[in-house]
Amino acid sequence: MPGRSGLNRSLFRVTLARMRLDTFIQLTLNGLTLGSVYALIALGYTLVYGILKLLNFAHGDVFMVGSFIGFGALQALGGPATPKVPVWLLLVLIVVAAMAGCAVLGVAIERFAYRPLRNAPRIAPLISALGVSFFLAYSVQLLFGSEQRDYDAFSLSAGALFFDGFNIGNVRIPLLRIIIIVSAFVLMIALWLMVTRTRLGKAMRATSHDREAAAMMGIDVDRVIVFAFVLSSALAGAAGVMFALRAPTAATIGFIAGLKGFTAAVIGGIGSIPGAMAGGLILGFAEAYTQGYISTRWSDLLVFVLLIGFMLFRPQGLFGTPELKKV
Amino acid sequence: MKRVISAALMTGVAAVLAATAVAQPAELMRTEAAAQQGVSCNSTLKIALVTPLTGGAGFLGNAQLRWAKYAVKTLPKQYGLKIRLVTGDTPVEGGNAPAQSVAQKFVGDRSVVAVIGPATSGAVAATSQTYFQAGLAHISPSATRTSLTQGATKEATAAFFRVVPGDYIQGPSDARFMIDQLKVKKVVIIDFQEPYSVGLADAAQTFLRSKNVTVQRESTSVRTTDFSSLVTRVPSDAEIVFFPTQQPEDAQTFAQQLLEQGKRAKVFGGDGANSPDKFKVPGSYVSNFARNISDFAYNKALIAGWQKDNPGSQLESFGPPTYGAVQVALNAIQRACKAGNGRVKNRRDVVRNVKRINVKNWILGGNFRFSTKSNDPLNAKFYIFQIQSNGSYKLVG
Q: Which CATH number is B215's domain given?
């Protein structure tokens, strides 16, 4: 039989192991929440790149605009402390408002910033995308100021979104995180079904494969491109609201969020829909585990090391296929 | 061919060197000339507000702008002066470059006789030499980094003044409160890798460790908005998370995420987190360089007037010291005008007079004078507030 000190040591080890497991579960949850948002942003990059071969660097700022539209809708519906509608409906409405607003914005961006440059050298739309990015960030700053905007989700139902939920071990899985993760996955699955099971999805895949051939087969390529912008911007709008429900938003958040979404798309293989989903989640987990186990200082560095690493050693990403060139 | 390229390169380098050599004395001469050209006190003089009006710290700059506008609207008559407020935007994301270009603009304008700001410590360190060479007094309402005015290698010059105490007072004050009142044993300190935050975190950490309190130091970026994984690193037995942010919304998010993860630690923010409408998680603490200005009866009319001009705006903590800084500047300009028989003969005359001022019924409480040992306020102290369940701030230390 072990002595008292042996028992104490065993007890200590069990407690330590449980604490480590709790930390792991908590970090996994953090990564999943963050990764779901990154995946939605990455899907936007992938959709547009897949069809136009264009890196839409304004996408991060569409995400930012989405978070502002959600904020406006929240205020219009009575604000977090005194909502005029039930909380679940309020959440649905602000997400829908942000998706609709961003979809319109996406169409405008495509019409005025990219369509005129569709046959220009590839650098031209890239520069135009950067211009749109700055235009959106500074316009929002001019219109709404530079202050951060807090949805104050804590006040909704007196903190129920943070305190209700269920436990895994000692780790609480709050309702708000469940809502964010489930909503993100629902949107991703809906997109996947739309692309693989509908006529429009088939047209998108055909355009992505060979735009000229698709046009010759009678596909309205312009319509497909506009639809890709509608989808990608709507996803960015939803991601903006999901992000801002947990953290304050500001006119300047688009750049870094866009860069992370782009990195996620590159990791998964830009142009690949499952790749964007996987890339977002990988990036979210990598960031959360780095912050939790190493240091928060290292997480941004890790993101960009991953970006450079994939660019150098596997430019097609995890799910992409290497581009074949005719010789 | 090689020769041609070499010759072209040599010519280019020589041209750049020559242009630099010519430009530097020209710039110095322009600055010196602007410093020495007098201006009549009957003309409209300019006071420049240098602060981040855009970018992540824009909330701070805009709060300062509201109070500076009100001060310039209401105070100059009392001093027999006509003043116009001009502004220079120094977004923190731009690093030193915007602050330097704003400084060059104002030192070249001889009607600018004093600067309110720069608002941030980094901008002060980057531009104080420029203002000093031009003899331009720059009075900050918010730059609190200790090394600007203290220590063997001061970062700011003799033309720099501040109307709020430095971090050498705030950090130890906060730490002393944690030890004496909260009886802490374990504290987590988080800095944001920027001068304000690191300086304040260092000052508090040194004091806490000297009293044998266990300190876990963490660091994050100013761009971080979701702190979940940082919260996961907070030990369950830590009593306080010292969180010197300049964004009160970040303190709010962090405190909410602590609650979400079931941690018992309370957030303790510095003056940057002091904002009753943005940081309101009950039980948290904030420190500030002043009590609430509405605690002083003599501020009643002033607050009413300001609120009439700024309907719906909160008093905020960064705004009122700006009013005070304008008051200090006007005092010094008035003295320089008297000494120059109706003219500010040289902008250095304003600098010389700043330390002589004495303001009664100071907006932040009591009377205001500068210390004789440094360009910091005399007998300044920090106050600690605890957030109550109704969101109000209660003075506790």
A: 3.40.50.2300
Q: Are A267 and A141 in contact (CB under 8 A)?
A: no
Among the ranges given (A121-125, A156-160, A287-291, B321-325), the one the predictor scored with the smallest mean pLDDT: A156-160
Between β-strands B137-140 and B160-162, what pairing exists: parallel, antiparallel or unpaired? parallel
Lowest mean pLDDT among B41-50, B88-97, B363-372: B88-97
Which region holds residue A152: left if phi is over 0, alpha if psi is between -120 and 50, else beta?
Answer: left
**Residue B367 confidence (pLDDT) above 50:** yes
Same domain, B388 and B270: yes
In a domain, A109, yes or no: yes
Query: Which residues between 279 and 338 in chain B have a beta carbon less than 8 angstroms from any beta carbon of chain A?
Result: 281
Would you say residue A97 lies in a domain?
yes
Measured CA to CA, the distance from residue A106 to residue A227 in angstroms comes to 9
- Is position B207 within any domain? yes
Report how far residue B363's alpha carbon sits from residue B345's, in angstroms, rounded to the nearest whole number: 30
Q: Write the burial class of residue B379 (CB in 10 Å: 0-12 exposed, 13-18 middle, 19+ buried).
A: exposed
Q: Which pLDDT score is estimated for B199? A: 86
- Report yes or no: A249 and A68 within 8 Å, Cβ to Cβ: yes
Tell me which chain A residues have a C-beta less than 8 angstroms from the C-beta of B62: 145-147
- The interface predicted TM-score (ipTM) is 0.82
pLDDT at B276: 82
Domain that holds residue B81: 39-165+297-354
pLDDT at A14: 62
Whether residues B229 and B195 fall in one domain: yes
Set of chain B residues whose Cβ sits within 8 Å of the Cβ of A150: 249, 252-253, 278
Interface contact flag, B229 A30, Cβ < 8 Å? yes
Taking contacts as CB-CB distances below 8 angstroms, the residues of chain B near A248 are 225, 247, 249-250, 252-253
Same domain, B145 and B71: yes
The number of folded domains in chain A is 1
Query: Considering the domain boundaries, does residue B192 fall inside one?
Result: yes
Residue A7 lies in a domain: no
B14 in a structural domain: no
pLDDT in tens, A132-161: 999 999 999 888 877 788 898 888 878 888
**Which chain B residues are Cβ-neighbours of A27 within 8 angstroms?**
229, 232
Q: A248–B233: do the CB atoms touch at under 8 Å?
A: no
Evaluate if residue B18 carries a pLDDT over 60. no
Check B56 against A23: CB less than 8 A apart: no
Against a cut of 0.80, is the pTM above it? no
CA atoms of A82 and A237, how far apart (whole Å)? 24
pLDDT of A18 reads 59
**For residue A221, what is the domain's CATH number?**
1.10.3470
Domain count, chain B: 2
